[in-house]
C-alpha cells in the first residue's frame, strides 16, 4: 500500500506541473513573439525589438477602441456590482419564496451559450428600435458580469455573522448607521473584488461586443478586425501582451481583496484562535 | 425592572414561548435556564428587541417595549458569538455605541477606559479584534455593553464558548462585576452549575414554558417536578402516595422511606394520589460500623463508580423498584466499600421532597 | 411594525405585528433582489422568449411574417448543413467536456488532498489563464498550430518533419484542442469544491475496513465527488456548443460549428427566424444532452458502490 501511495503522491505533482505548463505556455507565446523582430511568429526568434509596442500609441483606431473598452468596462463593473450587491445580500440574508428560481435566472448567463444570449439581446434591442452603441454593449456586459459579481459578493457576505449587525443595533445604531459602520466596511473588499472581476470580464469579452456594438468598438472587436491581416499580427501580439499584463494585475489585486474579505468575515463567528 | 406578562411567540405552528410571565427585580442577577429549544433565547431576544412577541407585553423599568426598536431600548446584550466587530480595534469596539451619543472626546475616552478597567482589559485599547483570545473577546463584549450604562444587561450563553477553567473563572468575575455595577443582569444558559453559581434567582424553562422561578438553593432542593429536579442534577425518585395535603405540607406514604411529611413546593399541582418523593444522592450518607440514625434505610451495594473526590454507590433497597444512587465523599473510605456488601444509609427528612409526577 | 397596533384589541394587533414582521422580512428580501431580477428578466428571459417566438415566424424580406410555422425547425433539423453542424457541435462539446474533466480531475484531487496550505495559491494560478482574453488564447493556438507556426517550425528545427504540415490547423481536432485549453480552468473549481467536501475520516474508515488506495478512491472519493464532476461537465458542455470564436479562428472549413451558422443568419443572410430556430434547437439539444449525461453519470456512480 505504501508503495502505491508513494507512486500516487509522486505522480501527481509532476502531472500538476505539466498541466500548469499546458495552461500557460500557449499564452506566454504572445509576449515572447511580441518582442521578436520577425513579423511571422515562429521559432527560432530573430531578435529583440520594441517596435511593435512603439507603433501602438500611433494607431488612432486602437486608442479609440482602448478608450471605449475602459468606459464600457467601468460602466459594466459599476452597474453589475451594484446589481450584484442587491442580489447577493438578498440571497445570503433573507429567505423568501421563489428564491431559487430568482437566483437561477440571475446565474443563467453562466451556463448559456454566450452567442445565444447575445443574439437574443440583439433581436430585442433591434425590435425596440434602439441603435447599437457602446450603451448596448454595456447592457450585454452587465448581464454576463452579474453572475460573477454575485458569486464573489456572496462569498464575501456569507459567513457574515448576523449578530454583528444586531450588536450594532443593540448599541443604539440605526439601520443605515449599521450598514455604514459595520456592513459596508466588512464587505468593502468583496465589492472591490467584484468591480475588478467585472471590469476584467468586460475588457476581455468579444462575443457581446461583436454583436451589440455599433460603429464604436471595443478592444477585442478591434483585435478581431486586425486578425485578418497577417502583417498586423505583431502589433496585435504586443497589444495582447499588454492586455494580458493588465488582466493579471487586476486579478491579482481582486484575489487579494477577496481573501481579505474572507478573512474578515471568517474571523467573526464563534471560532477562536 | 422587567415585567414579562403572558408573552407568547410562535413561528407558524411551532410555539417557541407559551404564555410566559416573569418579573425581574432591579439589580438582580437573573438566569433563564433550560435545554436548547426551551425558549430561553427567544425570551432574551424579545427583551432586547430582536424578536417580537406574538402576544403579551414586555416592559422594562415601567415602560412598555411594544414597538420600540432594539436600538432605542435601555438594554444591551452580550452575544453568544460576542459579535466583536472585526474591522475595529478594542477601544473602537467599546466606543462603538458611544459615538452615537456625541460625547466630548475626553469624556468618551474616559468612559472607554473605565469600561476596559472594569473587565480588566486596561492597556489593550489598540489591540486588533482578530488578535484576541476567547476570554478577551468576551471581556470586550462585556465592556462594549456596560459602557452604554444599560438598565439591563442581557447575556446570551456568554460562557459557552470558553473552556472549563476559564468558564469557572469568568463565573466568579461576572458575579463580582454585576455586584460592582449594580445593573440588572439577565443570563441565558443551559448549564445548571453556571445558573446555580451566579444567580440571585433562576427561571427553569422547558418546551416554551416556565416551569419554576426560585432562588438557586430552593430550585435545587425543592424542584417543582421531576423534570426540573432532573435538569438541575441527579436525584433519586421513589414512588409515593399522597395521604394528606394541606396549605403548607404534604404527607406521603412510601415503601423504603415510610410515611414522610414534607414542605409543599410552590405551585404544586397534584395529579391524583400518585406523587414522587425525591432525594439528592449527596443527601444520603453511609452509616459506618454501628452508628445509627433515627432515619435510615438499608440495602446492598450493587455497583460502585469512582470519581476522585467522591464515589457513587448504587444501593439496592428491598421494596424500592429502582436502586438508590448515593454520592459519598471519599474521606472515610467510601471508595473501598466492596460491591455486594450490606450497607445502611442515613438521611435528613428535610432533604426529602415530594413532587408532582 | 408598529402600524398594526392602532385601535384593534392588543392581542390581535400583536399577532398582526408579528405576521407583518415575518412578511416584511420576506418582502425586504424580494425588494432587494428585484432590481437584479428585473434586469435578468428584461434582458435575458424576455429576449430568450422573443427568440423562441421568432423561431415560429418567417422572414419576409425586411419584415417578419408572424404566422405560425414549423418550417424553420424543419430546415434546422433536416437540412444537411445544419444537421451536420449541430452534430459536429455536439461532438466537439462532448469531447471537449470529457477531456477537460478527465484532465482536470487529477489536478483538483492534487490541490484538494496535497495542496496543504497553498490551496488557494494553486487555484489562483490555475484560474489566471482563464481570465485572460479568450480571443487572445484562441489566437495563440493559431500561432502554435499554423503553417508557419511554432509547432511546425519547432518540429522542423528538431528534424522530425522536413516541410511545414498543414495538418495541425483548420480542422475539428484544432478546435477541440483549443477549446480544451480554454475551458480547462473552469472544470477544476467545481471538482475541487466537491472534493473538499469529502470527509477525510470516511477515507480512513474505508482504509480501516480493508480498502486499498485505488479501491478507496473508486468506492468513496469518486462517487462523493460526482456532483462536482457533473457540474464541471455541464459548465463546459453547454457554452462550448455555441462557441463562435474558436471555429472561426482555428476551425477552417472542417471545424465550423452551429454558432457560425447562427451568426450568419443574424448577419449576412438576415434570416432571423431561421437563426432563432437554430438557437432554440441548439439550446434544446444541449439541454437534453446535459440531462442524459447527468442521468448516466448518476446511474454509474450508484452502480460503482
From TrEMBL, chain A:
| Matching Gene3D superfamilies | MetI-like
Which GO terms of the cellular component aspect does the record hold?
Answer: plasma membrane
As for subcellular location, the record says: Cell membrane
Q: How does it sit in the membrane?
A: Multi-pass membrane protein
Keyword Transmembrane included in the entry's annotation: yes
The UniProt transmembrane annotation reads 12-33, 65-92, 104-126, 132-153, 190-213, 233-254
Determine if Glycoprotein is one of this entry's keywords: no
In this protein, which residues make up the domain named ABC transmembrane type-1? 66-254
Keyword line: Cell membrane, Membrane, Transmembrane, Transmembrane helix, Transport
GO biological process per UniProt: transmembrane transport
Classification via InterPro entries: Bact_Polyamine_Transport, MetI-like, MetI-like_sf
Q: Give the protein family.
A: Belongs to the binding-protein-dependent transport system permease family. CysTW subfamily.
Which protein is depicted? Spermidine/putrescine transport system permease protein
UniProtKB/TrEMBL annotation, chain B:
Q: Which GO terms describe its molecular function?
A: ATP binding; ATP hydrolysis activity; transmembrane transporter activity
Top-level division of the source organism's lineage: Bacteria
ABC transporter domain location, by residue?
A: 2-232
A GO BP term, please? Answer: putrescine transport
- SMART domains in the record: AAA
Tell me which UniProt keywords the record has, alphabetically: ATP-binding, Nucleotide-binding, Transport
InterPro entries annotated for this entry? AAA+_ATPase, ABC_SmlMolc_Importer, ABC_transporter-like_ATP-bd, ABC_transporter-like_CS, Mo/tungstate-bd_C_term_dom, P-loop_NTPase, Transp-assoc_OB_typ2
- Fetch the PROSITE patterns from UniProt: ABC_TRANSPORTER_1, ABC_TRANSPORTER_2
Q: Does the keyword Nucleotide-binding apply?
A: yes
Q: Does the keyword Transmembrane apply?
A: no
Q: Which GO terms describe its cellular component?
A: ATP-binding cassette (ABC) transporter complex
**Family statement drawn from the similarity comment of this UniProt entry:** Belongs to the ABC transporter superfamily.
Its protein name is Spermidine/putrescine transport system ATP-binding protein
What species is given as this protein's source?
Neomesorhizobium albiziae
Q: What is the lineage of its organism?
A: Bacteria, Pseudomonadati, Pseudomonadota, Alphaproteobacteria, Hyphomicrobiales
From TrEMBL, chain C:
Which biological process annotations from GO are given for this protein? transmembrane transport
* Pfam families the UniProt entry points to: BPD_transp_1
Keywords assigned: Cell membrane, Membrane, Transmembrane, Transmembrane helix, Transport
Q: Which residues form the ABC transmembrane type-1 domain?
A: 86-293
Q: By its UniProt entry, which PROSITE patterns does this protein fall under?
A: ABC_TM1
Q: Which residues cross the membrane?
A: 37-57, 90-108, 120-136, 143-161, 167-195, 216-238, 276-301
Per the record, its GO cellular-component terms are: plasma membrane
Specify the domain of life of the species encoding this protein. Answer: Bacteria
| Cellular compartments annotated | Cell membrane
The similarity annotation says: Belongs to the binding-protein-dependent transport system permease family. CysTW subfamily.
Which protein is depicted? Answer: Spermidine/putrescine transport system permease protein
The protein's organism comes out as Neomesorhizobium albiziae
Amino acid at each position: 500500500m505504501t508503495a502505491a501511495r508513494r507512486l500516487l503522491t509522486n505522480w501527481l505533482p509532476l502531472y500538476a506541473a505539466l498541466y500548469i505548463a499546458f495552461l500557460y505556455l500557449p499564452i506566454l507565446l504572445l509576449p515572447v513573439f511580441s518582442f521578436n523582430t520577425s513579423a511571422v511568429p515562429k521559432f527560432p526568434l530573430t531578435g529583440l525589438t520594441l517596435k511593435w509596442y512603439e507603433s501602438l500609441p500611433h494607431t488612432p483606431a486602437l486608442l479609440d477602441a482602448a478608450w471605449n473598452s475602459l468606459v464600457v468596462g467601468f460602466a459594466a463593473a459599476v452597474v453589475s456590482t451594484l446589481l450584484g450587491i442587491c442580489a447577493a445580500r438578498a440571497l445570503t440574508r433573507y429567505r423568501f419564496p421563489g428564491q431559487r428560481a430568482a437566483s437561477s435566472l440571475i446565474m443563467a448567463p453562466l451556463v448559456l451559450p454566450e452567442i445565444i444570449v447575445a443574439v437574443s439581446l440583439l433581436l430585442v434591442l433591434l425590435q425596440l428600435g434602439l441603435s447599437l452603441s457602446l450603451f448596448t454593449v454595456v447592457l450585454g456586459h452587465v448581464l454576463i458580469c452579474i453572475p460573477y459579481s454575485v458569486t464573489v459578493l456572496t462569498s464575501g457576505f456569507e459567513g457574515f455573522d448576523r449578530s454583528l449587525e444586531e450588536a450594532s443595533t443593540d448599541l443604539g445604531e440605526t439601520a443605515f448607521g449599521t450598514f455604514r459602520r459595520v456592513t459596508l466596511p466588512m464587505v468593502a473588499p468583496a465589492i472591490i473584488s467584484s468591480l475588478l472581476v467585472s471590469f476584467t470580464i468586460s475588457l476581455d469579452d468579444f462575443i457581446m461586443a461583436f454583436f451589440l456594438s455599433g460603429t464604436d468598438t471595443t478592444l477585442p472587436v478591434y483585435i478581431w478586425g486586425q486578425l485578418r491581416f497577417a502583417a498586423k499580427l505583431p502589433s496585435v501580439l504586443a497589444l495582447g501582451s499588454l492586455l494580458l499584463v493588465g488582466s493579471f494585475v487586476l486579478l491579482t489585486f481582486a484575489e487579494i481583496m477577496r481573501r481579505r474579505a474572507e478573512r474578515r468575515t471568517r474571523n467573526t463567528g464563534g471560532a477562536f484562535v | 425592572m422587567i415585567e414579562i406578562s403572558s408573552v407568547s411567540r410562535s413561528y407558524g405552528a411551532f410555539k417557541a414561548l407559551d404564555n410566559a410571565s416573569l418579573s425581574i427585580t432591579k439589580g438582580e442577577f437573573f438566569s433563564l435556564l433550560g435545554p436548547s429549544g426551551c425558549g430561553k433565547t427567544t425570551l432574551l431576544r424579545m427583551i432586547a428587541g430582536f424578536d417580537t412577541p406574538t402576544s403579551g407585553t414586555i416592559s422594562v423599568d415601567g415602560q412598555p417595549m411594544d414597538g420600540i426598536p432594539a436600538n432605542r431600548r435601555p438594554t444591551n446584550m452580550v452575544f453568544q458569538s460576542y459579535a466583536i466587530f472585526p474591522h475595529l480595534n478594542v477601544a473602537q469596539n467599546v466606543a462603538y455605541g458611544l459615538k452615537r451619543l456625541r460625547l466630548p472626546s475626553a469624556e468618551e475616552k474616559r468612559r472607554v477606559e473605565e469600561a476596559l478597567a472594569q473587565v480588566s482589559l486596561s492597556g489593550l485599547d489598540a489591540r486588533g479584534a482578530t488578535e484576541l483570545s476567547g476570554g478577551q473577546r468576551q471581556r470586550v463584549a462585556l465592556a462594549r455593553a456596560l459602557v452604554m450604562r444599560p438598565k439591563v444587561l442581557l447575556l446570551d450563553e456568554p460562557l459557552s464558548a470558553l473552556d472549563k477553567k476559564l468558564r469557572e473563572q469568568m463565573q466568579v468575575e461576572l458575579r463580582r462585576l454585576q455586584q460592582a455595577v449594580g445593573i440588572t443582569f439577565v443570563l441565558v444558559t443551559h448549564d445548571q452549575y453556571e445558573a446555580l453559581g451566579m444567580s440571585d434567582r433562576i427561571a427553569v424553562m422547558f418546551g416554551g414554558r416556565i416551569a419554576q422561578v426560585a432562588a438557586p438553593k430552593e430550585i435545587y432542593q425543592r424542584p417543582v417536578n421531576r423534570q426540573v429536579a432532573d435538569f438541575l442534577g441527579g436525584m433519586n425518585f421513589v414512588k409515593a402516595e399522597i395521604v394528606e395535603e394541606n396549605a403548607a405540607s404534604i404527607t406521603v406514604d412510601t415503601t423504603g422511606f415510610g410515611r414522610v411529611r414534607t414542605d409543599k413546593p410552590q405551585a404544586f399541582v397534584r395529579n391524583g394520589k400518585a406523587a414522587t418523593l425525591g432525594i439528592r444522592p449527596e443527601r444520603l450518607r453511609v452509616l459506618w460500623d454501628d452508628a445509627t440514625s433515627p432515619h435510615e434505610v438499608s440495602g446492598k451495594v450493587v455497583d460502585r463508580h469512582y470519581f476522585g473526590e467522591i464515589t457513587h454507590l448504587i444501593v439496592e433497597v428491598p421494596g424500592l423498584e429502582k436502586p438508590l444512587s448515593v454520592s459519598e465523599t471519599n474521606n472515610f473510605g467510601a471508595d473501598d466499600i466492596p460491591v455486594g456488601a450490606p450497607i445502611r444509609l442515613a438521611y435528613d427528612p428535610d432533604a426529602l421532597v415530594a413532587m408532582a409526577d | 411594525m408598529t402600524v398594526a397596533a392602532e385601535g384593534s384589541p392588543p392581542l390581535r394587533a400583536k399577532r398582526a405585528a408579528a405576521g407583518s414582521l415575518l412578511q416584511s422580512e420576506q418582502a425586504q428580501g424580494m425588494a432587494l433582489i428585484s432590481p437584479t431580477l428585473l434586469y435578468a428578466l428584461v434582458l435575458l428571459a424576455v429576449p430568450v422568449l422573443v427568440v423562441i417566438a421568432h423561431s415560429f415566424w418567417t422572414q419576409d424580406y425586411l419584415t417578419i411574417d408572424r404566422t405560425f410555422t414549423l418550417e424553420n425547425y424543419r430546415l434546422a433539423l433536416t437540412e444537411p448543413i445544419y444537421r451536420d453542424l449541430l452534430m459536429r457541435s455536439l461532438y466537439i462539446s462532448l469531447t471537449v467536456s470529457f477531456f477537460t474533466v478527465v484532465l482536470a480531475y487529477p489536478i483538483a484531487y492534487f490541490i484538494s488532498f496535497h495542496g496543504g496550505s497553498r490551496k488557494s495559491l494553486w487555484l489562483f494560478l490555475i484560474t489566471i489563464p482563464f481570465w485572460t482574453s479568450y480571443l487572445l488564447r484562441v489566437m495563440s493556438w493559431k500561432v502554435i498550430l499554423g503553417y508557419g507556426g511554432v509547432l511546425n517550425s519547432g518540429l522542423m528545427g528538431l528534424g522530425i518533419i522536413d516541410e511545414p504540415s498543414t495538418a495541425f490547423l483548420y480542422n475539428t481536432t484544432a478546435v477541440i484542442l483549443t477549446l480544451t485549453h480554454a475551458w480547462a480552468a473552469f472544470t477544476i473549481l467545481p471538482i475541487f469544491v466537491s472534493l473538499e467536501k469529502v470527509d477525510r475520516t470516511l477515507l480512513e474508515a474505508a482504509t480501516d475496513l480493508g480498502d486499498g488506495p485505488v479501491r478507496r478512491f473508486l468506492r468513496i472519493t469518486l462517487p462523493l465527488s460526482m456532483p462536482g464532476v457533473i457540474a464541471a461537465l455541464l459548465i463546459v458542455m453547454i457554452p462550448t456548443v455555441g462557441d463562435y470564436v474558436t471555429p472561426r479562428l482555428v476551425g477552417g472549413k472542417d471545424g465550423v460549428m452551429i454558432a457560425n451558422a447562427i451568426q450568419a443568419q443574424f448577419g449576412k443572410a438576415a434570416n432571423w427566424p431561421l437563426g432563432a430556430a437554430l438557437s432554440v434547437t441548439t439550446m434544446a439539444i444541449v439541454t437534453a444532452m446535459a440531462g442524459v449525461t447527468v442521468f448516466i453519470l448518476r446511474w454509474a456512480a450508484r452502480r460503482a458502490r
